[in-house]
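Format notes (please read before filing issues)

Several people have asked whether sequences and structure tokens are stored in separate files. They are not. Every record keeps both together, in the order shown below: the sequence lines, then the token lines. Line labels are part of the format and must not be stripped during preprocessing.
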Amino acid sequence: MPYGLSYAGAGSDYDGADAFILGIPYDRTSSFKAGAREAPAHIRRASYGFEEIHFEHGLGLPGISVFDQGDCEAPFLPEDMMGEVKFFMAPAVRDGKFTVAIGGEHSVNIPIIQCFKKSDVALITIDAHLDSRDEYLGTRYSHACVTRRAAEHLGIDNVFSLGVRSISREELERDDVIPHVTSFEIRETGMERAVRSALDHVRSERVYLSLDIDGIDPAYAPGTGTPEPFGLDPLDVKKAINIIGDRLIGFDVTEVCPPADPSGITSVLAARLINEALAVRSKSLG
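Then the structure lines:
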């Protein structure tokens, strides 16, 4: 386990755990700043900086029993990474665990979503980028292809993106544009309206939320591989997690790049949002 630490509060064994954490230190398709492979260790270490009481929710942290698997291997090829992630995630999904993945780049979401049965879950992403290219830099499993692969597996009516503000011509000039709400629209009309739009759009009752940390404005989260100005406030993301509420069945945080943030504040924010997802899941279990 990196730094000798599991995630704070993750004291359960697998069989007794309600939630399952997996670190995925992979960033081989990164196209601007590499370094997201270092994030699982930094985020775990940052998780120890919070009080035990989650006072907004009236819960201890994390409020549910959590098992931390540690990190999976990070092979060179994205296809091999996918097999490695599925090896650990597929049993946890099958066993009904609330899964939390700590990336790594955003491509790690592709094999996670493929662990779910088609039409059994919807994917909502929070991301500066639409990530809906058919392929990027020679691979269909790039960080720039996440929502396209999800739409192929789940159906486009089970995929929605929030906070987008960077879209290529290729992604817009097609008949099946991934449904999305921009960060500019959210700024004007609020996060609650945007999340309600996403929940109304998707068919599945169960929702997997994928947070690419660059969805948050780089003023709050500078440590990311592809920063994009005019992003979301961290409180927007906290609100989104809470609005999804008891429909939330899985969560990941990706694209935290510790070498780009010597202060460590981005890792701290990522850990706090994982705690938020665990708290919301705890409340849904009663």
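For reference, the curators noted about this record: The mean pLDDT is 93. The longest helix spans residues 265-284.
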